[in-house]
Specification:
With about 170 residues, this protein is an alpha/beta fold. The protein contains 7 helices and 5 strands. It has a 3-stranded mixed sheet with strand order 1-2-3. A two-stranded parallel ribbon has the order 4-5. The N and C termini lie far apart (about 35 Å).
């Protein structure tokens, strides 16, 4: 909706094309996408982006989630916390958290100064090393356990390794 220059979408699509042609790893894609996104938001207001993220998920809600809504609701009813670890922007992941019955969420975090994006990436949980740190932190006190790991790339291996049951979304051989 005009938050970033339309050319940014083209640049991001080029990175996804390289990934899809197996010319870069998922970790490399996540790092590149994070840098591109951070640069595109320099000088943009954090609150404006949060509002746009909320509008985006309202539009995207049904098409993206479909059957997942029932699963998430059933898990919450059974006091199972669904935790999302994603390379998607934290503003979007947080907006989904607020609309769904999710527990903790981890998304791409960008630096701000006085509510304005600076162009720097603080944390990118789209890469395997960061996912491994997050899983370790979640499990560190012994009060939690991972029962299901879901993912769509090699970067999700830390989730698969921590869970007795794993679901691979897509057709990526592991």
């Amino acid at each position: 909706r005009g938050i970033v220059d339309p050319d940014v979408t083209t640049v991001l699509q080029e990175q996804f094309d390289l990934y899809n042609r197996k010319m870069m790893t998922h970790d490399d894609l996540a790092l590149a996408a994070g840098r591109i996104y951070a640069k595109a938001l320099i000088g943009k207001n954090y609150l404006t982006l949060r509002a746009e993220a909320a509008l985006f998920i309202k539009k995207d809600f049904g098409s993206l989630l479909g059957p997942s809504l029932s699963l998430l609701s059933a898990l919450a009813d059974r006091h199972v916390e669904a935790i999302v670890i994603s390379g998607a922007p934290s503003e979007v992941v947080q907006a989904y958290r607020e609309s769904l019955r999710l527990g903790s969420v981890y998304g791409l975090e960008l630096a701000t100064n006085a509510g304005t994006y600076t162009g720097n990436v603080i944390n990118n949980p789209g890469v395997a090393a960061e996912k491994r740190k997050i899983v370790s932190r979640i499990l560190s006190d012994g009060s939690a356990r991972v029962v299901l790991g879901m993912g769509n790339s090699h970067s999700d291996m830390p989730l698969f390794e921590a869970a007795p049951l794993s679901v691979l979304v897509g057709d990526i051989p592991l």
